[in-house]
Design goal:
Blueprint (H helix, E strand, L loop, with lengths): L7 E7 L3 E8 L6 E4 L3 H14 L2 E8 L6 H19 L8 E8 L2 E8 L5 E5 L6 E2 L2 E2 L2 H13 L2 E8 L3 H20 L17
Parallel strand pairs: 3-4, 7-10
Antiparallel strand pairs: 1-2, 2-4, 5-6, 6-10, 8-9
Helix pairs in contact: 1-4, 2-3
Length: about 200
């Protein structure tokens, strides 16, 4: 049987606020090279890549002297666009996935539907302004940006936990593993579209 080609997506996105270069391989080995200028955000993207078994090269130069918002949101949008591009017409994929992930005392859950419809619900339960050097409210902006770029439903929620670091990390790991399932090829459907409306 012929091995299926690896699905890849490259994005070069330039605005007055950010310059992003991104290369994604869905069938990867968890390899990453990430630089956004926000170390904790880099760490989250690195573990996202490893837990999703993707390969990711990502460089973002943003106006961090103004705020972190543009960098975090635009990276989310570009990463979502890369997945959307790599998946093409989405024939033969599982389309949806969910995962519960522990991080010591914390439990996070993520659910993803690559439906072609944009919606996001985020509940981090983070109670501090910063997690590491990342403005914590921007975790929401990342997932919302990804939802827009990927044209996907994204729901992430911290069920419980004490450490704010663990809450964010559990969500990124759960999201990666849910997305890994959603992107997986469905041997039962073959090349069928996982929708009755004829388009995703």
């Amino acid at each position: 049987m012929k091995k299926a080609a690896k699905r890849t997506g490259s994005i070069d996105r330039k605005t007055a606020e950010t310059q992003i270069s991104l290369k994604l391989t869905i069938e990867g080995a968890g390899r990453y090279k990430v630089s956004t200028g926000i170390r904790f955000f880099d760490h989250m993207l690195e573990l996202f890549t490893r837990h999703g078994a993707f390969d990711l090269e990502l460089t973002c130069k943003g106006d961090l002297d103004v705020d972190q918002h543009h960098t975090v949101e635009d990276v989310g949008i570009a990463l979502g666009e890369a997945f959307d591009k790599a998946l093409g017409d989405k024939r033969g994929i599982l389309r949806a996935g969910y995962f519960l992930m522990t991080m010591d005392e914390t439990l996070g859950i993520a659910a993803v539907d690559l439906s072609g419809r944009v919606a996001s619900v985020i509940d981090t339960k983070v109670k501090t302004r910063l997690v590491g050097d990342l403005q914590s409210e921007l975790v929401d902006d990342f997932f919302e940006g990804f939802s827009r770029g990927a044209r996907a439903n994204v729901h992430v929620k911290t069920m419980y936990g004490r450490s704010n670091h663990h809450k964010v990390e559990a969500l990124f790991k759960a999201f990666a593993r849910a997305l890994r399932v959603a992107c997986s090829r469905d041997p039962q459907l073959g090349e069928m579209l996982p929708s009755t409306k004829g388009l995703l």
